[in-house]
Amino acid sequence: MITNEQAADTALLTPTPSVFSLEGKRALITGGGSGIGFDIARCMTLAGADVIVTGRREQPLIDAVDALGPKANYMVNDVTVRAELDQLVDTIERQYGPIDILVNNAGINMKKPALEVTDEEFDRVVHTNLNAVFSLTRACATRMVERNSGVVIMISSMAAYYGIDRVAAYGASKSAVEGMVKILASEWSGKGVRVNAIAPGFIETAMSKTAMGGDPDRFARAMRRTPMGTFGQPQDIGWAAVFLASEAARYITGASLPVDGGNSIGF
Ligand code: NDP
């Protein structure tokens, strides 16, 4: 027997595409011209969103994003130039309209034994993966809070949780992002803005190929840590992002969703 209160919510209990639809929403996806970010953009446009994708390079990323159709636009932007991020958000909102969804995807890795990492290298990774993420999130969330509506998604990493060798700066930056998710989610939970993370495992992109360095031993080690026994594909992260951005996830904030073929079950 369904009560009246439950009946009012049956739309959310029915797994129809509409619950997951992003129709009428606009997403800003940093570093979305290639790799995981590109597939987040692809999945979000398939779910009905308009997307603005950023990256440092022009070609071939402009052509790649153009191929996603009229709902996708590319803008050249380096997230590490923090003083320009407020202006970026302002320009996008004036040109296209309000940003409903921010996906902080742009990130860099650096694999090196900790004793060989210079201060400059450490700072470069933290600057991109953490400091810039805070600045852009603040710029977008200022407007989202005013509108009492918005979603922020951080692309974190399982390196935030585990002692993976040779990623001191990367792991530290992603752990800090995971901490920030909980704080921002708490601060903005009464202001209509949800903040969550996705923690990918081994996903097949340029970054993971570089990290593996073509070394079959490293690849075999990574697969031993992955109960499902395969690399994930960028669209596995894309659909998780669609879910977190959608109404289906309206009661989820401050969470980190592992999308990792089971890495997080434990090594
Ligand atoms: P890639 O290196 O394949 O792509 C990164 C993208 O980010 C590129 O399009 C790049 O474009 C852009 N980018 C890098 N720096 C900047 C910057 N300063 N400003 C704007 N754009 C920038 O990485 P992935 O797709 O693999 O990774 C995406 C995210 O997922 C990262 O945050 C990463 O840490 C995370 N992740 C990836 C995993 C994996 O296995 N691949 C695992 C766990 C997490 P351009 O060079 O033109 O700027």
TrEMBL record:
Q: Could you tell me the superkingdom of the organism this chain comes from?
A: Bacteria
Q: Where is the Ketoreductase domain?
A: 25-201
Database matches in PROSITE patterns: ADH_SHORT
Concerning Gene3D superfamilies, the annotation shows: NAD(P)-binding Rossmann-like Domain (3.40.50.720)
Extract the InterPro entries matched here. Answer: KR_dom (IPR057326), NAD(P)-bd_dom_sf (IPR036291), Sc_DH/Rdtase_CS (IPR020904), SDR_fam (IPR002347)
Hey, which family's this protein in?
Belongs to the short-chain dehydrogenases/reductases (SDR) family.
Entry protein name: NAD(P)-dependent dehydrogenase (Short-subunit alcohol dehydrogenase family)
Q: What is the organism field in this record? A: Spirosoma oryzae
